[in-house]
Amino acid sequence: CTGNGICKCRVCECFPNFTGSACDCSLDTTPCMASNGQICNGRGTCECGTCNCTDPKFQGPTCEMCQTCLGVCAEHKDCVQCRAFEKGEKKETCSQECMHFNMTRVESRDKLPQPGQPDPLSHCKEKDVDDCWFYFTYSVNSNGEANVHVVE
Fold first, then answer.
1. 88, 105 in Cβ contact below 8 A?
2. How confident is the model at residue 59 (pLDDT cuts 50, 70, 90)?
3. CA distance 79 to 134
4. Which InterPro entries has this protein been placed in (predicted)?
5. What is the C-alpha separation between 85 and 29, in angstroms, rounded?
6. How does pLDDT run across 72-129, given as a tens digit for each residue?
7. Cα(first)–Cα(last) distance of the chain, in Å?
8. Which H or E run contains 10?
9. Domains of the chain listed by start with CATH number
10. Sign of the CA dihedral 90, 94, 100, 105?
């Protein structure tokens, strides 16, 4: 019974948190916990303590790796640009397409949120339509709300 149960009459009786004919399947989901606090990043199921990624774009031990995905910064660049500076590719459709995050303006880069806070945080440096750099952070809190801080 792989040390996780007792064999009685050639049948394994598993200890708590183990299942399977040989008690070799852990019911502990801790190894499946992604950095955002979701089981398998919300993109898979935890089976025997291992993630089975159901979204084919995502892989890795907790379904967090995506080779083909745009980074958080590139993905949100156009919306941040139109909300903060009223320009860019989504300028005309900003109010329809770009209201999915809370936005806070800050005076300078050192006023941006810093790593070490409880919510996963991405620091972004992107070029705008005028070929100028702009800086912002993107984070998602435990309620699933997206928060953007952008340097004026």
1. no
2. confident
3. 13
4. EGF_extracell, Integrin_bsu, Integrin_bsu_tail, Integrin_bsu_tail_dom_sf, Integrin_I-EGF_CS
5. 44
6. 888 899 999 999 999 999 999 999 999 989 999 999 999 988 766 666 678 899 999 9
7. 62
8. none
9. 5-65 (2.10.25.10), 67-151 (4.10.1240.30)
10. positive
Tokens of 83: 């909300």
DSSP per residue over 104-138, as a string? EEESSGGGS--TTSSS-EEEEEEE-TTS-EEEEEE
Which residues is 8 bridged to in the sheet? 11
Amino acid at 1: C
Spatial contact of 27 and 19, defined as CB atoms under 8 Å apart: yes
144 pLDDT more than 80: no
Q: How open is the CA angle 52-120-68, to the nearest 5 degrees?
A: 50
Both tokens of 19, joined, read 């299942």
Chain position carrying tokens 């955002």: 36
Query: At 17, is the pLDDT very low, low, confident or very high (cuts 50, 70, 90)?
Result: very high
Listed residue (134, 124, 149) closest to 71, CA to CA: 124
| Tokens 């070799």, residue located | 24
